[in-house]
Amino acid sequence: MAYQLSEIVRQFTIDVNVEAYGNGHINDTYIANSEPKYILQRINSAIFKKPEEVMANIVAVTEFLRKKIIAAGGDPERETLNVIKTVDGKSFYKTDDGNYFRMYKYVERAVGYEMVESPEQFYQAARSFGKFQNMLADYPAETLFDTIPRFHDTEKRFADFEEAVANDLAGRKVLVKDEIDFVLSRKADASVVLNGIRNGEIPLRVTHNDTKLNNVLLDSKTGEGVCVIDLDTVMPGSLLYDYGDALRFGASSGAEDEIYLEKIYFDLELFEAFTKGFIEEVGGSLTPAEIELLPFSAKLLTYECGMRFLGDYLNGDTYFKIHREHHNLDRARTQFKLVADIENKLDEMKKIVKKYI
Ligand code: ADP
Ligand code: GN1
Ligand code: MG
Questions:
Q1: 155-172 residues labelled b (16+ CB within 10 A) or e (exposed)
Q2: What average pLDDT does the structure give for the chain?
Q3: Is 3.90.76.10 the CATH number for 5-108?
């Protein structure tokens, strides 16, 4: 490491030791255990090619949210991320060797979970993601930078996957023939939501685009949603991306990287809890095409994530952080197990959605 973290925190006018924190797959996160606490992050600039634009989005979005939270009588110190400025008044610090760091206030008395513990908890997460989307409904979408272009463009993701298979950079193709076939045989799915966007039935909104359970913090006492975090990918997108991705992660019976696949299934009770909470918040603004595709979106976002994990495995693990040799393959396999299970449950899921519309 060419940079000294102790030097970097001083750029944000604090002077304490920091230690590694959290389980994100993308950025390097540290906690400063001072009073009050702070979160320091090294932005992954291999993935976010223009960190300045990421921070411009985050500053603008959090300032917008701050005003709404204050108007609603909420606590802006806890209910949105708060960017700490550097000694030079900037929203990030760039080291001489080109690393980008940012600092946030630590959201006090709140917890991020790696797995859902109860339907009630997932219902609270759903309400938070729904509220987040509502608060940004009148945000000027055209002013946001695309921090990762075509992030949820599943046709592009499919093409990238085909390229990873063709290149076989890590020489692993031979190990994953069945998984590759699983992805290729579902090519038509990749166009469904995009077709709806192209023909105007599915509106673009300002969406979070990474609604994993550990990207929402819940109050440690009441269990209610406090703050939606990880705003790197807030961009124009479909509401179905936020709904589907949250279910991909949260309605799974097991961890994203579970190796015993018999433990993995799509939990309909959790699906119902999330659906109830999300529709309670955003239901009034749903279009008929969105309503129709709610169940399918859980499958689509799980399929997309599975092909991203498998593509990264084929490319030699250059995107997602891994902690063991076949980690990305283990992750891809849970996603495909879920996709297959969702396919069997789509009719039941449609009935559940109808209960809340
Ligand atoms: P990544 O993009 O790598 O997922 P995140 O921004 O999600 O990075 O941060 C990783 C983890 O750090 C989160 O899942 C959460 O547990 C914790 N975290 C991040 N920001 C804050 C914050 N402001 N307050 C409290 N915890 C935070
Ligand atoms: C990454 O940053 P994190 O860990 O919340 C990824 C998501 C994936 C997720 C899979 C910017 O999310 O798109 O769905 O891993 N974020 C980015 O766990 O690629
Ligand atoms: Mg995260």
A1: eebbebbbebbeeeebeb
A2: 97
A3: no
